[in-house]
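**Folding the chain**
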Amino acid sequence: TGPTTVYHDPVSGENIVNQEGKATEGQSSSSTTPTYAGFDKLLEVGFTLNQLDSAYSAFEQYQPFASNKVQISLAVNDVSTVRPNDADPLYRWSVVSHIVVNRTDSYKVQIYYWGENSAELVLLNADGSQQLFDSGPLNTSDTPDID
């Protein structure tokens, strides 16, 4: 393994440690799975670990993120929680924020979450004027949510 570098990510507020020749924590060296920074903030606003896993899965379904090893940083100081609409049959909460991918590309995100396990990602361009991707409802746990 080579030298270690530490990058302070201003978007997430986290320090990201990279060691040449060694995978980022939680990844294999050949992995194309994104590296996530700042997403623990979602646990503070009400996400469960299973919902967070479902959100990660949603990001990995978006082809530009799935086919490349990317770093996705959540703007933790920009996270706002949106109460469910009473007319929504799933009664989904959501968070709205923006992400920065590979330290350069900005996107607006809305991540819906409900039950104990489910999440849905809506990804928009930086100013929120164009929807780029909607993952549809995802549940990565072995337990279905009960309506």
Notes: The mean pLDDT is 87. Strands lie at 4-8, 15-19, 35-37, 71-74, 80-82, 93-101, 105-114, 118-124, 131-134, 138-139.
